[in-house]
């Protein structure tokens, strides 16, 4: 246990407080937003505590710089993030990663009072053209910069938000399209799964990919599943948490944590297809033979998925496996297609999240009740389901018109 520091009268001192033995004066040490160590002094402890309260109340650690309009974008962004007290740790980590990577060392060093609409527009265009950034990544950056400038507007540091209307202008004048994750076609989906199932090295991935393609779970939701979340009697899967893997601390070392769904819609039950139940049975038999997963994460245990090191896999390892499988399949398929004088069915580059899109597309092809689709996918807004996840494949459009031609006798 850490020893409590006391003054010469035996009173406990708070963190940062001390009493000098030379002149008996009290001091309080703190770090301002620019990383500089500063001190405040008083002849007695009561006065020092009053100064500390005033420091906290008025946020004097940089207020003069802020009011004078000399603060940089970085300064205001850091201030904005400190005010987001209830932000989820995963979201906070993602925000900091995006900002630090694309903004902090360049645009972030500009003084916020000097920035105009054209400066923001030029910065966005530079990201799109020189760094070949996708428009959806730019949208994520805009999601951070706009409230940062808005905070300065509300504090009276600047009059107008220079980011207003910039993204719309960029989209209007840019050929970049929002990044849409296209679902695999039925042929691609079957080719991928058959290759995994029959491959001597990659076959152990079959249960996970079957569950992803048969439930539409997000990768974190699937990896976070425990045996108690599976109700084989009623053939349903309970989704009420997710496994997240994000960097923490100054070292940015990534660790696994359990996260609750962002919205109430994320907590749901998903009916279990036969193939999905078979996948769970395979995993159960494997753990019965090799031993149960004893990993504990944030108090939770009994996880279904386990890698060869005895740990729960992280999403990056799954995406790396997909990349290797796709590369192996395409190389084999090209040779086979040439030998058999047919057109090769090649797989595109995709991630685990594309499997969620693929499931949703297959579901939309069979199910017409939008509320059912929304519930299974765990979307708060039905617009998300229809605009982002569900896409009309060329095959289904053709089938739809063939049925229409056969039944719609109005000409």
UniProtKB/TrEMBL annotation:
Keyword DNA-binding: yes
Family annotation (SUPFAM superfamilies): DNA breaking-rejoining enzymes, DNA-binding domain
Core-binding (CB) domain residues: 71-153
Secreted found in the keyword field: no
Recorded family membership: Belongs to the 'phage' integrase family.
Function field: Site-specific tyrosine recombinase, which acts by catalyzing the cutting and rejoining of the recombining DNA molecules.
Descriptive protein name: Site-specific integrase
């Amino acid at each position: 246990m850490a020893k409590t520091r006391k003054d010469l009268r035996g009173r406990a001192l708070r963190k940062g407080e001390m009493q000098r033995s030379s002149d008996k004066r009290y001091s309080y040490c703190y770090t301002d937003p620019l990383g500089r160590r500063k001190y405040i002094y008083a002849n007695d402890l009561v006065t020092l505590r009053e100064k500390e309260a005033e420091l906290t109340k008025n946020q004097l650690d940089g207020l003069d710089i802020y009011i004078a309009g000399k603060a940089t974008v970085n300064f205001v962004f850091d201030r904005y993030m400190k005010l987001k007290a209830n932000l989820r740790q995963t979201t906070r980590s993602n925000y900091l990663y995006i900002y630090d990577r694309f903004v902090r060392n360049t645009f972030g060093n500009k003084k916020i009072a000097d920035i105009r609409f054209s400066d923001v527009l030029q910065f966005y265009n530079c990201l799109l053209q020189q760094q070949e950034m996708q428009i959806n990544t730019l949208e994520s950056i805009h999601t951070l910069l706009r409230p940062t400038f808005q905070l300065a507007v509300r504090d009276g540091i600047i009059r107008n938000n220079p980011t207003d209307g910039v993204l719309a202008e960029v989209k209007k004048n840019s050929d970049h399209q929002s990044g849409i994750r296209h679902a695999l076609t039925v042929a691609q989906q079957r080719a991928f799964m058959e290759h995994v199932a029959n491959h001597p090295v990659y076959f152990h991935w079959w249960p996970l990919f079957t569950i992803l393609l048969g439930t539409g779970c997000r990768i974190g939701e699937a990896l976070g599943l425990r045996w108690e979340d599976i109700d084989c009697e009623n053939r349903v899967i309970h989704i009420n948490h997710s496994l997240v893997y994000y960097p923490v601390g100054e070292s940015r070392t990534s660790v696994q944590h359990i996260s609750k769904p962002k919205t109430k819609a994320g907590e749901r039950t998903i009916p279990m297809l036969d193939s999905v139940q078979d996948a769970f049975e395979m995993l159960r038999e494997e753990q019965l033979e090799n031993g149960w997963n004893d990993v504990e994460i944030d108090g939770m245990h009994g996880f279904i998925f386990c890698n060869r090191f005895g740990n729960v896999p992280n999403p990056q390892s799954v995406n790396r496996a997909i990349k290797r499988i796709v590369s192996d399949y395409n190389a084999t398929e090209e040779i086979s297609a040439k030998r058999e004088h047919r057109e090769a069915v090649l797989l595109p580059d995709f991630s685990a999240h594309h499997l969620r899109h693929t499931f949703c597309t297959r579901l939309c092809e069979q199910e017409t009740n939008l509320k059912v689709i929304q519930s299974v996918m765990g979307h708060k807004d039905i617009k998300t389901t229809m605009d982002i996840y569900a896409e009309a494949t060329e095959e289904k459009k053709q089938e739809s018109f063939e049925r229409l031609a056969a039944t719609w006798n109005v000409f």
